[in-house]
Amino acid sequence: MRYFVSFAYDGTGYHGSQSQPNGVTVQQEMEQAFSTILREPVSLVFAGRTDAGVHAEHMVAHFDSELTLPKNLAARLNNLLPPSIAIDGIRPVTPEAHARFDALSRTYHYRITTRKNPFLVSTHARVAEGLDFDAMNAAAQLLLGRQDFSSFCRVHTDAKTMICDVSEAQWTRTDEYTAVFSITANRFLRNMVRAVVGTLFEVGKGRMTLDGFAEVIAAHDRCRAGHSAPAEGLSLVKITYPEYIYNV
After folding, report:
1. Which of 51, 132, 134, 221 is catalytic?
2. Which residues contact 147 (CB under 8 A, 6 or more apart)?
3. Max alpha carbon distance in the chain (Å)?
4. Which of 11, 80, 202, 225 could tie 208 with a disulfide, CB 3.0–4.6 Å?
5. Over 80: is that where the pLDDT of 178 sits?
6. What b-and-e string marks burial along 77-113, b requiring 16 or more CB atoms within 10 Å of the CB?
7. Helix, strand or coil, per DSSP, at residue 60
8. CB burial class (10 A; 0-12, 13-18, 19+) of residue 148?
9. Helix (H) or strand (E) holding 179
10. List of residues 6+ apart from 161 with CB closer than 8 A
């Protein structure tokens, strides 16, 4: 039987979401907890990867097990997992359902603050005052649609295509000191959102024009874009799937 598990995590203390040999990751913590409770090796396939320090308010992974899962599995996992990882739910799906390849859309939020606030250190990137949000939103509209986002992708990745279909990209002021950038697409490239935000900062600071931003997109060259925004401001907040995968 295949299952989808929905969960959230604070990525501050992790070297990213997916397993790697030289650092503690969310995947390693979760697989260890699953294997301990179910008393069998469990391999999780994540819907995507997040970099060190990046958070997820809604991540999904799938795993296979022939066991009858205990009804209180989510609660037992939460008792065993560190406070920075929380299981939201576990549900059966069709045998072919895939957490990564069946995702219809993903939404990220990038949060910023212009005021020093110790309670926002791990969830908001601190930026200087004076960003032009109207200019950044005008530039963000150029991201919409199906196009090549090579200019915002980390070099030397294993991506087979740089084409993404962005359906939403917008800054919203949440109060006098904070704002959030929301971006939704069918898929994202490695480091894409942080590179986009870093380049939008250049527009907001008056260092790049709207035409200049359009030229960055068209260049398909990472060197033309701005620096990646800090990891702590970024969070994966939503993943959608077709309803038929739950018809079991």
Report:
1. 51
2. 163, 164, 166, 217
3. 59
4. 202
5. yes
6. bbebbeebbbbeebeebeeebbbeebbebbbbbbbbb
7. strand
8. middle
9. strand 178-185
10. none
What span, in angstroms and rounded, lies between the C-alpha atoms of 244 and 236? 23
Report the relative pairing of strands 145-148 and 163-173 from DSSP bridges: antiparallel
How many other CB atoms are there within 10 angstroms of residue 174's CB atom? 11
Give, in degrees to the nearest 5, the angle at Cα 34 between 104 and 20.
70
Residue 4's H or E segment, with its range, is strand 2-9
User: Which runs of E-coded beta strand occur in 186-244?
Assistant: 234-240
Beta-bridged to residue 61, according to DSSP, are: 5, 46
> In terms of DSSP bridges, do strands 55-64 and 2-9 run parallel, antiparallel, or are they unpaired?
antiparallel
Residue 45 backbone dihedrals phi, psi, to 5 degrees: -110, 110
CA atoms within 13 A on the CB side of 198: 19
pTM over 0.90: yes
* Mean pLDDT value of segment 43-51: 94
Residue 125 has pLDDT above 80, yes or no: yes
pLDDT (tens digit, 9 = 90+) per residue, 128-171? 999 999 999 999 999 999 999 999 998 767 778 999 999 999 99
